[in-house]
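New to this. Comment on this protein:
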Amino acid sequence: MAEFYHSVTLNEEKCVGCTNCIKRCPTEAIRVRGGKAVIASERCIDCGECIRICPHHAKRARHSHLSQLSDFTYTIALPAPSLYGQFNNLDDIDYVLTGLKEMGFDDVFEVSRAAELVSEATRKLMDAGALKRPVISSACPAVVRLIRVRFPDLCDHVLPLKSPMETAAAMAKRDAVKKTGLPPEQIGCFFLTPCPAKVTDIEMPLGIEKSQVDGAIAISEVFPELSHKMDHLEKVEPLANSGVIGVGWSTSGGEAAALLKEMGVPCLIHQHRYSMLQQDNAALIPVIEEAGMGSIAFCPLSQGLLTNKYLNGIPADSRAAGKSVFLNENAITEDLVKKVSALNEVAAERGQSLAQMALVWALKVGRLTSVLLGASRISQVEENVKALSNMEFTGEELKRIDEILK
């Protein structure tokens, strides 16, 4: 094995040396040399920020492929809790788990199930006073590598437990050996993830000699076929074994919330990103409700995209026209403008601005307690508050909005 393995790679032909990635890299691992980005292998933590921010798509992540399932006699899918968030209005994760088996996996083992065990083990260690405070989770390999590179004095604060991914793989293989009688080397465990750091963690793990996971397949590769299989299921198997605590790990603050619940401290409200254009967290809705928590969404207007600001071009004084790393002119695509224009027509028919309708939609469809808004002018606050004048949607309106957002 090479000294450093990295899942994040650079396509020099597409790189124009624009420095966007330099500004966002948390470890200062990127420099521009000869008009092209250069990634310092010893500093890169494979967090994927450069992939997300690059407007020229010069960065990409390596991952395993579904074709590699044929390398094993028996295969097990390890779905990350974040997979469930890819499906709108998902009330039963058994649809996802059954769909994975229909794709060709022999079995599934929820990583959220292992997350619950890690939460319990963490609570016991904390109760015993065996951990240095503050305690830093070891679940995210990008964070662990960030600490090693930038903040080595904090290494002793990292939780001395295997991640839910590794725990799930070990448990899944153990169960499969008992069930099939096959040797472990003929059993393949594949983690389904959107995270390039997980790929690196499998190929070059920290703290253990060899990962129990045999490959990491990108959710983007799995989603099309999985979605098709889910749409044509004749029978849904009762496969889910994890609860609210484990599934909740996929949310911001979910791991901490799990510990609070274990310790008898109720979580009153959960904050997550949610809007018409960003529904990745839709699967959290029933989880949050089952836990008896409130929910508040940030970016309900998608950085201003769900307003009339960009319907006729990019204003010179707008965020997209500036140097914001969160929104730039490349995000204002022809397809986006078409969708937003269609939504604006629905809003006008309701007697509302697009922003007002977008807020009401988020509150109603997202079943939110409230939303977080940013405003630079009093007039923006006043306009948003007027959304309260029409808080109901007809079935036809919701149907039209769903069609537009497809």
Observations:
- The longest strand covers residues 187-193.
